[in-house]
Amino acid sequence: MNAAHRNIYKNALNISHLLARCRVKTGDRVIDATCGQGHDTVFLAELVGEEGRVWAFDIQAEAVVSTRALIEQRGLAARVEVVHEDHRFMDRYVGEPVSLVMFNLGYLPGGDHRISTAPRTSIDALEKAIGLLGEAGSITLVCYTGHPGGREELQALKEYLAGIPQNYLEVIEISFLNQLNNPAVLLLLNKLNGGIR
Ligand SMILES: C[S@@+](CC[C@H](N)C(=O)[O-])C[C@H]1O[C@@H](n2cnc3c(N)ncnc32)[C@H](O)[C@@H]1O
Q: 28 CA to middle of ligand 1, Å?
């Protein structure tokens, strides 16, 4: 198949990775706010390289164990701190500016679907993430809409983000308008003007 005809964007998660590749440099500090099985943590750890650092958070012990096992297996443990903690408290662990914070909302695949991100805690965590962004830092939020509460969470995040001054943060929504089965939506934030509010 000709490259021009390939589906290059695929889904919100894939676009979040494409954008992360544009924003993150070797040696950067970044956060995975919802590490789950550790796939995004591994992706970020490879992007920042040996000199970089990744903080990975999850509220579930099961996710922390999976993520630690995966990063050990890939030889990336020295550059990753996996924290068993609610992402609302990420500022207690990260003491320096970061260039990217990645949120992949919803529940742990294969885990207890009742333990899911929620509007209030996601907004609190997002506020913390914005506070930790360095100059020209970015945040990606992959928002799933097919599970109970997913659409409400996306709506609450959008309402919160719509109130942020446009000279402080650029806020973008990317949706797949013609995909079936409740495609995930990507919210993207970029800090502007050196982040002065
Ligand atoms: C869709 S999964 C993340 C997938 C993951 N990024 C990966 O690559 O496998 C969402 C994760 O968010 C976690 N989570 C839910 N509420 C949270 C909270 N308040 N703080 C931190 N993690 C939370 C869940 O436990 C779940 O593992």
A: 22
